[in-house]
Amino acid sequence: MAEVFKFGGASVKDADGIKNVAKIIGLHQDKSLVIVVSAMGKITNALEELTDAFVKKADNAVEIFEKIKDFHHCILIDLFGDESHPVFDDIANTFVEIDWMLEDEPHPDYDFNYDQIVSIGELVSSKILSAYLNFSGLTNNWLDARGCIHTDNTYREGKVDWEKTRQSIQKCVNESNTNNYLMVTQGFIGGTSENFTTTLGREGSDYTAAIFASCLDCPSVTIWKDVPGVLNADPKWFDQTEKIDQLSYHDAIELTYYGATVIHPKTIKPLQNKNIQLFVRSFINPEEPGTVISNLENHLPVASFIFKMNQVLISIFPKDFSFIVEENLSHIFQLFHNHRIKMNTMQNSAISFSVCVDQNEQKLQALIADLNEEYKVKYNENLEMVTIRWYDQNTIDRVIENKHILLEVKSRHTCQIVMKGKE
Ligand code: ASP
Predict the structure, then answer these.
(1) Do 209 and 339 fall within a single domain?
(2) For 275, how many CA atoms within 13 A lie in the half-sphere containing its CB?
(3) N or C: which end of the chain has fewer CB atoms below 10 A?
(4) pLDDT at residue 177 in the model
(5) Overall number of domains in the chain
(6) CA-nearest residue, atom 8 of ligand 1
(7) Above 80 in pLDDT, residue 157?
(8) One domain, residues 184 and 65
(9) DSSP state letter for 159
(10) Is residue 98 part of a domain?
(11) Which ligand 1 atom sits nearest the alpha carbon of residue 202?
(12) DSSP state for residue 198 in the 8-state scheme
């Protein structure tokens, strides 16, 4: 039975990274593998910049694009030496798709432009990895995820049509006709029924890995990261973090939902539904066992902290001092849904409803304009939100030192605090 390995951007940020990935794959030749790979290094950010420049008709679009092409060209030279290998043409032809777009007028839907341009990062990285694996004797097939993962046309957040996707993935893999196969495909991207490319949301390659594993009934997925496994906090915010050896699906889905960036939040459900184990391991120390996420009864052995910066607390009040009740709550929820704004935490009182969301100037202004039609709205920017799973008073005291608390929401196992540094 096949297993799925997912390699993120950090693991393929340069030629040495690709060689290291090939080494790891080489150690697992005894089984069938589907390799899901992200765009190299920070290329998705660069392609986002390019999309923005293109849509705004800024002068620097060509310059940004040239840098992206050069970055990949240097890696190709490092990997293959001279330019005689056919992958050079393949990559140049893939980039031509962007050239064509840049010559045209942008599509009126920003998100459509985004998906057609940003997805090229994954197409290119997967072609380079596949070619390099073949070059080093690890024979593999390159698979176009756009023909396997079928989505609707919600650009930048494609919703997967699971039945169609299952059929396509099984068909592609059965066609491979070999006992032990090696396939290389792209994370993050899918295709619509009109053959346009969609993306599944930032960091969505983990989700791709889970989709493949679910459709192929794999026993496990391994996400190879630059950390030793799942930690109880992001080392960016805490010096002393602890690695968690085993984690239940339940704790994992809660942590990712609240913003733990180690795994994309949509990854856990398809795996839990089929009892597929998820390993999070280090591509720097691939012999280490990392973390296993499974159907475990025990809860987290240590409190876990998730920090979110750039938060905005929005408080909504009925204009006529009437109660916040189910009817206006459902209207407020509908408005958030229409603007595709996720509520990170919320709380209500008799005449107010407060919501903490990520800062996104454009989306928030549009939402607030709609809310203002019926409600009085106040908001506070530049806040932090911390979520503590399996908290106690000590862990709370640790994070609120020198902070001013604006909102605190507690359930039995999870505490969320929206706060601001004291001036
Ligand atoms: N390349 C995409 C991103 O950076 C998807 C991924 O890496 O998962 O968000």
Answers:
(1) no
(2) 2
(3) C
(4) 63
(5) 2
(6) 203
(7) yes
(8) yes
(9) P
(10) yes
(11) 9
(12) E
Is ligand 1 within 6 A of the CB of residue 384?
A: no
187 touches ligand 1 (CB under 6 Å): yes
| C-beta separation of 311 from 344 below 8 A | yes
Residue nearest to atom 2 of ligand 1 (CA): 203
Q: How far apart are CA 336 and CA 354, in angstroms?
A: 13
Residue corresponding to tokens 């973090």? 241
Neighbouring C-alpha atoms within 13 Å toward the C-beta of 168: 20
Pocket flag, ligand 1, residue 44 (CB < 6 Å): yes
- Position 180 scores a pLDDT of 83
Tell me, in angstroms, the distance from the centre of ligand 1 to residue 145's CA.
14
The H-or-E segment that residue 22 falls in is helix 15-26
Domain boundary (198, 218, 238) is at: 218
- Strand 3-7 relative to strand 33-37, pairing: parallel
For 325, other C-beta atoms within 10 Å of its C-beta total 11
State the closest ligand 1 atom to the C-alpha of 205, by its place in the atom list counted from 1: 8
Region of 292 please: left (phi>0), alpha (psi -120 to 50) or beta.
Answer: beta
DSSP 251-282: HHHHHHHTT-TTS-GGGHHHHHHTT-EEEEEE
Contact 185, 125 (CB under 8 A): no
> Could you tell me the CA-to-CA distances from 66 to 99, 223, 230, 295, 340 in Å, in that order?
11, 31, 37, 47, 33
> What percentage of the chain exceeds 90 in pLDDT?
91
The residue segments making up the domain with residue 139 are 3-218
- Distance (angstroms) between ligand 1 centre and the Cα of 144 equals 16
DSSP letters along 55-97, please? HTT-TTHHHHHHHHHHHHHHHHHHHHSSTTSTHHHHHHHHHHH
294-298 own/partner pairs: CB under 8 Å, 24+ apart: 294/246, 294/247, 294/248, 294/249, 295/248, 295/249, 296/246, 296/247, 296/248, 296/249, 297/248, 298/246, 298/248
Q: Is the CB of 41 under 6 A from ligand 1?
A: no
Q: Please report which residue ranges of 278-387 form alpha helices under DSSP H.
A: 326-338, 361-372
Closest ligand 1 atom to Cα of 8: 7
pLDDT of amino acid 171: 93
Between the CA of 9 and the centroid of ligand 1 the distance, in Å, is 7
DSSP class of 107: P
Return the pLDDT at 124.
98
The pLDDT of residue 113:
98
Does 14 score more than 90 pLDDT?
yes
Query: Are residues 327 and 182 located together in one domain of the fold?
Result: no
